[in-house]
Automatic annotation (TrEMBL):
Belongs to the glycosyl hydrolase 51 family. Its EC number is 3.2.1.55. This is non-reducing end alpha-L-arabinofuranosidase. The keyword Signal applies. The chain holds residues 33 to 650 of 832 of the full protein. One of its GO terms (molecular function) is alpha-L-arabinofuranosidase activity.
Length: 618
């Protein structure tokens, strides 16, 4: 049937900010080390550890032949880089890089560096090679002299292209050598930056033309121990993301155990995030931990002194981003190579906390301290881990009553949910806090998911007076190390490709309008009852859950669809690919059994026009 769309060009709809659509970068799926961060050497400073991941140790990523041992003593390079390698006499070291190996391209240059000292004359021979030892570059020879730590550098040029290359470092002579921070970067990083970013990935993000970059997470920000790094004890190993750990010379950045289950070098840190945002013309939007853990950990650290330190860290971050070079943290930024301020305007406090009272008590203190010194900075609060429910209602009520600038909402749902909830923001208070949709995705990487996202984005845009920013999540996934999917951009060692969701995001970001043009639609499928086929989803957030007698109800409370599991059969329900451990039990209920995030969907045909349903599990 025909549609009639009536456009009212004279009417002035909401203005759409240039920053409406952006990206959310989190180091999940090996997005940083082995991904966007262009470093090719894995475990470059011998800091990998059995608490980072089972079976890991100081030599993970390396094969050593000859007398080479990982040492942790007071001869170390510096207090925050605990381990180094001691080599007594001639030895061979081979680094296998991330995934299948190092990706190198014929004729390209690679910048090598190492910190070293030796108790007698010694030399290093460095080269690229294949896994079986065939040379892929001419050797680089470096003489090491003196028993104090110095940085030695040189360049390798690849003679062939390979994505399974190795870096070989041979030592000669009888001296005892100490080595640390062995690094190899492609010369050709994004915009040629040193300590830079992998070009193809950075270019794909830049091609989106995002209005903002939210970083560094996610669950990464506010999980683990909230206490700062204690160098003397190399502790705590899994700590919240504290930005000061990630700035300054890379060899002084203490590594951390990542929430997503691996070591993070922090070579890609706050300076690099700001620099990248600037390079792609996007507004930087950092998120700080609020001393309350989220993401299933649900723990408040009640420690007033630590809270004051976290709040000071927030103020110091503003100084790092925007302060003059004469200020303490502005000077650090200038010494790193950026005397000009980065011009940060917006800062997030917290991520998906599920303890609303504890989070709120801290949030208002952060906000008061920031506003007192920087009234123009937008402070973003959040609404907890879910798109509805008690925590959501509680936090939204608090934010509304308080008059927060902006509230960060997150949700991952089925395509049917996105189609059915296009009107979500039509009813939001036009005078309340603005919405930052910091994370959302339809739960798969198929075309249908992306179409559902695109349809949903028209609803965001229609409400641009309330929804000020939105970012699909997660951004990146290393195909060999996937903790979460769907994702926007996928990659392996040397290739990357955008999902259909990437192309939807690109379409919207490359064509941000100036204003909403109000329209009305008559005729066509919108008015006529027309079956749609979609999916109904059940999901749970990192807790075991039991579902029995699942119902989809209409707004008036009558049942549209119901299912019990009394026959012990799944009745068409199935877990979303690789995400869940759902099963149907003999007693007639569906259950998730592990402490993880799960979603189960069932295809459904809904032959009605009003899709505003709520899903209820009893
Ligand atoms: O985007 C992946 C994760 O989803 C984020 O870390 C977290 O904030 C959300 O739950």
């Amino acid at each position: 049937p025909d549609y009639t769309i009536t456009v009212n060009p004279a009417a002035t709809g909401a203005a759409i900010p240039k920053s409406m659509y952006g990206v959310f970068f989190e180091d999940i799926n090996y997005a940083a080390d082995g991904g966007l961060y262009a470093e090719l050497v894995r475990n470059r400073s011998f800091e990998f550890n059995g608490t980072d991941a089972a079976g890991w140790n100081g030599l993970t990523g390396w094969t050593a032949s000859g007398p080479a041992t990982v040492t942790n003593d007071d001869q170390r390079l510096n207090e925050r880089n605990r381990n180094y390698l001691t080599v007594s006499g001639p030895a061979g070291l081979v680094n296998a890089g991330y995934n299948t190996g190092l990706a190198v391209a014929r004729s390209e240059h690679y910048d090598f560096s190492v910190w070293a000292r030796a108790d007698a004359a010694a030399s290093l021979e460095v080269a690229l090679q294949t896994a079986d030892g065939t040379a892929l570059s001419a050797p680089l020879r470096l003489k090491v002299s003196g028993d104090t730590w110095k940085k030695y550098t040189g360049t390798l040029r690849a003679t062939a292209t390979s994505d399974v290359a190795r870096l070989s470092v041979k030592t000669t002579g009888a001296a005892t050598l100490r080595l640390d921070e062995i690094s190899l970067f492609p010369r050709d990083t994004y915009k040629g930056r040193t300590n830079g970013l992998r070009k193809d990935l950075a270019e794909k993000i830049a091609a989106l033309d995002p209005g903002f970059v939210r970083f560094p997470g996610g669950c990464l920000v506010n999980t683990g121990s909230m206490y700062p790094y204690d160098a003397a004890n190399d502790y705590p190993r899994a700590r919240s993301y504290q930005w000061k750990d990630t700035v300054g010379p890379v060899e002084t950045r203490a590594t951390n155990k990542n929430f997503w289950g691996y070591n993070a070098t922090y070579g890609l840190g706050y300076y690099e995030y700001f620099q990248f945002s600037e390079d792609i013309g996007a507004m930087p939007l950092p998120v700080l931990p609020a001393l309350v853990t989220g993401c299933g950990q649900n723990r408040a650290t009640v420690d007033e002194k630590l809270l004051q330190q976290y709040i000071q860290d927030a103020l110091d971050l503003i100084e790092f981003a925007n302060g003059p070079v004469t200020s303490t943290w502005g000077k650090v930024r200038a010494e790193m190579g950026h005397p000009k301020p980065f011009g940060m305007t917006t800062i997030g406090v917290g991520n998906e906390e599920n303890l609303p009272e504890e989070y709120w008590a801290n949030f208002v203190k952060f906000e008061a301290a920031i506003k007192a010194k920087h009234p123009d900075i937008t402070v973003v609060s959040n609404s907890g881990p879910d798109d509805q429910g008690a925590t959501f209602d509680n936090l939204w009520a608090k934010n509304r009553a308080h008059g927060s600038d902006m509230v960060d909402e997150h949700y991952y749902n089925s395509p049917a949910w996105f189609l059915q909830n296009n009107k979500r923001y039509d009813a939001y208070d036009r005078n309340g806090p603005k919405v930052f949709l910091g994370e959302y995705a339809s739960l798969d990487n198929k075309l249908y998911n992306s179409l559902a996202e695109a349809a949903y984005m028209t609803g965001l845009e229609r409400n641009a007076d309330v929804v000020k920013m939105a970012s699909y999540a997660p951004l990146l996934a290393n195909i060999d190390n996937v903790q979460w999917k769907p994702d926007m951009i996928w990659f392996d060692n040397d290739e990357s490709w955008g999902s259909t969701s990437y192309h939807v995001q690109k379409l919207f970001m490359n064509n941000v309008g100036d204003r909403v043009v109000p329209t009305t639609t008559t005729g066509g499928g919108v008015q006529t009852a027309k079956p749609i086929t979609g999916a109904i989803g059940l999901s749970t957030w990192r807790t075991a859950a039991t579902y029995d007698d699942v119902k989809v109800t209409r707004p008036d409370g009558t049942t549209l669809f119901s299912d019990d599991f009394s026959d012990g059969n799944a009745d068409g329900w199935s877990p979303v690919t690789n995400r869940g451990d759902w099963s149907v039990r003999d007693g007639g209920y569906a259950q998730t059994t592990t402490d993880t995030e799960d979603t189960m969907v069932k295809a459904a045909t809904i032959a009605e026009t009003d899709y505003d349903y709520t899903l209820k599990a009893t």
